[in-house]
Write a structure and sequence with these properties.
Strands 2-1-3-4-5 form a five-stranded parallel β-sheet, sandwiched between helices. Strands 6-7-8-9 form a four-stranded antiparallel β-sheet, covered by helices on one side. It has eight helices and twelve strands. The chain has two domains: about 5-125, Response regulator (Rossmann fold, 3-Layer(aba) Sandwich), CATH 3.40.50.2300; about 135-230, Winged helix-like DNA-binding domain superfamily/Winged helix DNA-binding domain (Arc Repressor Mutant, subunit A). It has about 230 residues and is α/β, with parallel strands linked by helices. Helix 6 packs across helix 8 (about 195-210) and helix 7 (about 180-185) packs across helix 8 (about 195-210).
Amino acid sequence: MEQRVVLVVDDDKEIRDAIEIYLKHEGLSVLQAKDGLEALEKLESGPVHLVVLDVMMPKLDGITATFKIREQRNLPILMLSAKSENSDKILGLHVGADDYMTKPFDPMELVARVKSLLRRYVSFGSYEGGKRTVRIRDLSLDQDAKEVAVSGETVKLTPIEYKIVELLTTNAGRVFSIQDIYERVWKEPGYNAENTVAVHIRKIREKIEIDPKNPRYLKVVWGIGYKMEK
């Protein structure tokens, strides 16, 4: 199997080196970049399967770098920040990060999250055979191509966004709680998952709904959770 490559982006070399040691111990290959601009260059120079990205960096910060990465790529992004405010976490997730950790962090927890994101990335890109398409009015989900289209136009989703849409679409009409969505998609306990799930739901609506404030497909069931309307 191809060795997975993780790009670690942080302006603190000691942090980059420490993360590299832990990731290499798990059999992962590691590239380093000291800022967002160098990270974008590294992404063009060879295969990268996941990015660990600091928020506060010179030249090009992590938020802007994430936005630029998402314009071209769907690989998982784990964001790091010394800030713990919810607003920073929500902004990072809003522009396309898949997960978020606050410094200082437990290196073993970071490794666990990296491995979890990589497992979902591999699953997202795998071919399972057999044409399987789910249709709800003008929305279609192709489980083989891992693509979603609305009115025939392909919608560009991140791996996490696709997994959420797949879960809700293949169970259209069923209401899933926020905790249930998080545990099924992130494969982790869903404690305090409300902001994380809400940000991804908002991004999905912006992509699949004509009017995100009055959604036709992805509905909220107040006090319970979300469902895909049949």
